[in-house]
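Comment on the following before class.
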Amino acid sequence: MAAAPAALSPGTVPLGVLLRREVTKERMERPDVLCGEANRSRKGEDFTLLRADAGQRIPGDPSTSFSVFALFDGHNGSGAAIYARENLLNNVLRAIPTCFCREEWLAVLPRALVAAFVKTDKDFQTVAETSGTTVTFVIIDEWVVTVASVGDSRCILESADGSIYFLSADHRFDSNPDEVKRVTACGSKVGKMDIVGGPEVGPLRCWPGGLCLSRSIGDLDVGECIIAVPHVKQVKLSNAGGRIIIASDGVWDDLTCEMALDCSRGFSSDVAAHRIVNEATRPRGIRDDTTCIVIDILPPENIAPSPPKRPGRIALNNMFRRRSQDVPSKTKRSDYAEPDVVEEIFEDGSPMISKRLTTGYTLEKIFAPSSCAVCLVRLKSGQGISVHANPLQHEKLQGWQGPFLCPSCHEKKEAMEGKRRPRGSSTNVFGHMC
């Protein structure tokens, strides 16, 4: 018996409704996706991935193409950033069955991103490097944007009406008390740098190691309480389009979202990226690697972004437009037709990989009982370990005990969820100092 889909957030517009709306209305044309990048380097640890045509959901069918843009802000060396740039996209695509239609492909994408981030992190451990990296990973399929993030790089969206939406999460300890509690519960200490004979200084950090982030890829020497499970958000733009800005902390430490948009609005994506980097480095010079990617999602043949319709009235939105719970399921399509609305499809930032692998879509169509749900290695009969704490109870409710993990991925899951003490933590107290 197939597993039932998990409940959506209250009022969230289901993906199927949004996609069927495109069919029942006059078909929305594919947008033009334009990208610009700028960088000013101090340590040479920022890397990007820019692929306007990254692949096709159905091989050989250009109408199913999608775009990928990503920023990797490395620390303690560039190894983790380079490794993630070279391997993460392939791991995402391997985690999605090739037989899926567009609705299914988009529905499983958030879970595929979780599995791919964890696999990339696990595989990087074999390289035996101690570097780490933030990751902000954006996939654009027509008007649907999916963002997965770990670390403190930021991704924002400005819609055509001038509203700003946050598409990523901030995993700095200073900004995330829930992550402080999680890491502390795993056995690590979180606090500011303690100077002998003086006051505590600087941002909150994880000790040993001194990392100020709770999630990243790499950072093996800091311990497995620093996890690679990403925050994932998926939204759908109206056919008026919008502008996405992805930037490293070298930008956001000096600019607010409004400042970044104000200095770049009305310019092409390439010029906009350079203006943002220049504005961020102008007051105090280059103190850190400073990288910015600007992506314009535009109606076809609109080669330059238009100014927002309501300049000067920018609203910061953490909550996206959602369908009212009072709206009946058979609402006429005209009741949905509201221009320039950004609609939330999915969001989850839970650190629990067991939860992240078992929410949303019919699981048995994604995870073969004979394969590990993270690394995809083939499992021998009886070798797989269920992600559930009570597999028999889950089987009664959902019809099977999966998804399953191989022994090494299960061991990593247990460590990331704080069910065993971290191993391999660095004895170097000051370690990364990111």
User: Anything to note?
Assistant: The first strand starts at residue 32 and ends at 40. The chain has a mean pLDDT of 82. The radius of gyration is 22 Å. The chain has three domains: 15-171+218-351, 174-212, 364-422.
